[in-house]
Amino acid sequence: MKTGKPTRSTAGLVAVLAGVVALVLIAVVPRLLQTGGQAPAIGGPFALTDQSGRPVTDASYRGKLMLIYFGYTFCPDVCPTALGNVAQAYDRLSPAEQAQVVPIFITVDPDRDTVGQMAQYVTNFSPALVGLTGSPEQIKPVLREFRVYARKVEASGGSYTMDHSSVLYLMDRSGKYLSHFDGSASADQIAAGLKKYLAG
Ligand code: NI
After folding, report:
1. Residue 140 in contact with residue 111, Cβ under 8 Å?
2. 72 alpha carbon to ligand 1 midpoint, in Å?
């Protein structure tokens, strides 16, 4: 049986190769993850209009953490749930903490979400909630910067809904990406996350 020897050495070779591959993965993967977290920036400048008709930019909120959610006022369930949780989380902060956070709702449906529509909508949730809209030309680059997915879906009777991603972005005091929550995060989870960064 001459095949015994080669089989053993093949097995040994495979073991050595597996070891090398494992070492390479251990050495390289954390670095890949690190650069993956640093290189593609999320967020960026915006120039929009708030629910009182005031023109604002990202710089209007410097010095505060921006908690940003993208959606639309005609959304049947996902947006109201997420914004309700944001409002509850904000209520759980102390007044000193609240002064350092601005919850912002940016529309993915600028055609229907006029300034007046936004004004009516955001007051349903919290007096602190800022609602931002603009022309489609103003909204489009913001969606791209935050890598928000939004697509119009035709419904019956000439109406439509918007398919959209549901993520809460937490931006730091200089407007840079800090962290994010899943859009289905509970008020407790959002409040705990905010407090963590406010404490630091
Ligand atoms: Ni929605």
Report:
1. no
2. 6
